[in-house]
Amino acid sequence: MTLNRNHVAVLGATGSIGTATADVLQHLAKTDPDGNWRMWAASGHQNLPELTKIAAQMDSPPQRLILSSPEAAKSFDGTDALASKYDVGVGTNALVDVAMSPEVDTVVAAIVGRAGLESTLAAIDAGKRVGLANKETMVVAGPLVRQMMAKSGSELLPVDSEHSAIFQCLGNWASTRADTRADGTSGDSDAPANHAPKPRKLILTASGGPFREWSSDRIADASPADALAHPTWEMGRKISIDSATMMNKALEIIEARWLFDLPADAIEVFVHPQSIIHSMVEFDDGSVIAQMSPPDMRLPIQFALTYPRRLPSQSPPLCRKQSYDLTLEPADHGRFPALSLGFEVAKAGGTAGAVLNAANERAVGLFLDGKIRFTDIAAGCRDVLENHTHEENPSLSRMLELDRWARVEVDRRFSQ
Ligand SMILES: NC(=O)C1=CN([C@@H]2O[C@H](COP(=O)(O)OP(=O)(O)OC[C@H]3O[C@@H](n4cnc5c(N)ncnc54)[C@H](OP(=O)(O)O)[C@@H]3O)[C@@H](O)[C@H]2O)C=CC1
Ligand SMILES: CC(=O)[C@@H](O)[C@H](O)COP(=O)(O)O
Ligand SMILES: [Mn+2]
Fold this sequence. Notes:
It contains 18 helices and twelve strands. The chain has helices spanning 16-31, 48-57, 70-74, 81-85, 93-100, 117-125, 136-152, 161-179, 191-195, 216-220, 224-228, 237-245, 247-259, 298-306, 338-348, 352-368, 376-387, 396-415; strands at residues 6-11, 37-44, 64-67, 87-90, 106-109, 129-132, 155-158, 199-206, 267-271, 277-283, 288-292, 329-330. The chain has a domain at 6-158: Rossmann fold, CATH 3.40.50.720. Helix 13 (247-259) runs parallel beside helix 15 (338-348) and helix 17 (376-387) packs across helix 18 (396-415). The chain is 47% helix and 15% strand. Bound molecules: NADPH dihydro-nicotinamide-adenine-dinucleotide phosphate (NDP), 1-deoxy-D-xylulose-5-phosphate and manganese (II) ion. Manganese (II) ion is lined by residues 160-162, 252.
């Protein structure tokens, strides 16, 4: 009997998504023994203690560990106790190598920011299944990702909760049709494709972040601690600030535009403070299908790993003994100007995504360092975006050049 092999490389293993992925892999290894689940490789940037802790916690420890920060790598001389236990790679090239390794079947792309781009593209190019948390890859290089996928046959499974929800709302219809045939066949092989309804709208839900009920004046004085206090999710620092500005939703609009290949005007946002409805799809007859579960990233991570199988997960279901209020509110583009940037950039395509992403990353860093005000983040992004000359079909190297340019522009704007 040939057993499946599920060797998973978790890039960004020391972060919020990375540690949740480790948890899911431990769970799958115990509950799906025929799946042969294993964290084969794990990366961290500089947090070596956390990386070794995660590796040591796995029942079947990873073979390869990667420490990607060049500075942190300098302190690793290859002779210590770590090297006797693991094959240790250092530097950013090691991320690309592992993403392409024949030993790896699935890559969970959980590095934060543009730093995750090369390894995610390498995994796609090598035809791996990719569990995509690193939304910035789609924001910077969505069209390139689509081209690479078509060539390599890589499967890109969304981990971002909204995109996983949309994927589930779209996919269930076709598979239910095929599954309900009395004779167990799906009939004409092209039946689901021919009859599957096209989505009319993708409706992303947004928690509204910690400032959902704050006035514009109060938001202008928000501190990093205020902005990091997300009401429903525990996440890394960068995405938490993005949720507070609602730039996270802007990035997700762009991510959805390229993941699902729909125009920007087919995407809408509803504020849903409870984070239970993770997103929705509206079809031509007006019917709306939603995916719901209490907020817990282990669910979309596991679904990306096991798709098309749905297996028991650690994520608790909705509790039938309690009441839930599920509310939907229109998004306020006035207090959260980042939202409009998301729609504009999703529509513009070309170089706009790379510029917005880089400007935002830099501005978030400056805000966290106490150098700029909260409202400077979206304002700075708009300035930099408007100062750049749009190009329609940029190469990857051109996008990376503009990424560097946008960061310098943000610094220049705020040093005046
Ligand atoms: N957290 C969540 O619930 C969700 C996150 N996402 C997306 O997932 C991605 C990860 O988010 P999250 O887990 O919250 O982030 P974290 O900040 O918690 O973790 C980031 C990870 O990336 C590594 N890293 C940081 N900088 C670099 C670099 N320059 N090169 C290589 N690796 C680096 C970190 O290593 P080290 O620890 O050593 O610094 C860490 O492993 C983001 O793109 C985010 O938008 C999407 C949906 C939900
Ligand atoms: C868990 C997840 O997918 C995050 O992207 C989350 O959605 C952030 O919440 P906001 O809706 O506040 O941006
Ligand atoms: Mn999300």
